[in-house]
Amino acid sequence: MDTAITYLDHAASAPMRPEAVEAMMPYLTGFYANPSGSHRFSRRTRQAIDESRDVVADVVGCRPNEVVFTGCGTESDNMAIAGAVSRRGGVAICPAAEHHAVLHVVEHLGGVVVGVDDFGSVHLEALAQALDEHPDVAVVSVMAVNNEVGTITDIAAVSRIVRRHAPNALLHTDAVQAACWLDLREVTPHVDLLSLSAHKFGGPKGVGVLVERGGPRIDPLIIGGGQERERRSGTQNTAGIVATAVALRLTDADRDAEALRLADLRDGLVKGLQSRLDGVIETVPVERKVVGSAHVCILGVESEALLYLLDEADVCASAASACASGAMEPSHVLAAMGVDRPIALGALRLTLGYTTTEADIDRAIEVIVPAVERLRR
Ligand code: PLP
């Protein structure tokens, strides 16, 4: 990446860890054999996948044979939900602030969407009620960390509700945004299915993980050559899987130190904006969200216009509002949280990660403040 770029869009995609890039190279150039083959060359690539599976299992807190490598986080989410409904019949349930990789699948399958609180976490009473009303529920899917506003959901509390009200349902968590910030070993025991995406924690794009605990309990989505013990057919992306394991191991090792370092930077960013501009609302309080997230709503500006000015100044950020039928629509997450439309239209998502420095924060403030002033004029 151009070093002049101020990259505050880690939740969209993190830069690859150099160690992960280095680890994948031999599998792109030398060990390119198909891991399903029978010759020595193939066995070598299969061994690399198995060793990577061991690393992922260790960091996630499951058994190696419970780790299924997929093609992305979206595929893992789809497989968890569609695979559960296909195997078991019945409905899928999820909260309204899920990523579209979950929400659209649940809606597509005619499932049930429940409300969230002011911070975007599932309403536990609403969930319990929906479970009572749908005795045939096949799977409940609740994200561990929200991709837009960074809210952490207490998956143990969700699990207690699901086990009490729907003991036969599977519980899936989309932990795609959690790997950098939460010790997954404390999340996994509460769920049956868990999704990850490598490019969110410094691995490559195009590798996902679905943890399927306690043996095959859902139908596969992709059928063919029977790879991944019949759970996900298709020749594995050996280089990508090796790099994923390296990135996940490093993320796990650095997590606590990074949380301390980035909390200061994140707070400095939000306070820096608030001290120089009126009307900068922190969407979710710090105690409810991950340290990498600085989501704010800036009154009197529209995100799209602000992002345009930031882009011109080489500051990468995002907002989730989308232009539908010519009119700006607030994101489905902010709408579900009940954020008023004029406030939601000024949403700005700044997300930090392992490459973020104090200089990035200073520069972001230097660019955002005059951009907002200009738009308000
Ligand atoms: N779930 C969440 C919470 C995400 O943030 C994302 C990516 O934005 C996904 C799922 C989809 O992951 P992928 O980009 O690997 O398909």
Characterization of the model:
The structure is a single chain. By secondary structure, this protein is an alpha/beta fold. The protein has 2 domains: 133 residues, Aspartate Aminotransferase, domain 1, CATH 3.90.1150.10; 233 residues, Type I PLP-dependent aspartate aminotransferase-like (Major domain) (Aspartate Aminotransferase, domain 2, 3-Layer(aba) Sandwich). It has 11 helices and 14 strands. It has a 7-stranded mixed beta sheet, sandwiched between helices. Strands 9-10-14 form a 3-stranded antiparallel beta sheet. It has a two-stranded parallel sheet with strand order 1-11. Strand 12 and strand 13 form a beta hairpin. Helix 8 crosses helix 11. The protein is globular. About 1% of the residues have low confidence. The structure holds pyridoxal-5'-phosphate (PLP). Pyridoxal-5'-phosphate binds next to helix 3.
What is this structure's SSE topology?
Layout: E1 6-7, H1 18-29, H2 40-60, E2 67-70, H3 73-88, E3 91-95, H4 100-108, E4 112-114, H5 124-133, E5 137-141, H6 155-165, E6 170-174, E7 193-197, E8 208-212, H7 238-276, E9 280-282, E10 293-298, H8 303-312, E11 315-316, E12 322-324, E13 327-329, H9 332-337, H10 341-344, E14 347-351, H11 358-376
Parallel strand pairs: 1-11, 3-4, 3-5, 5-6, 6-7
Antiparallel strand pairs: 2-8, 7-8, 9-10, 10-14, 12-13
The structure holds pyridoxal-5'-phosphate.
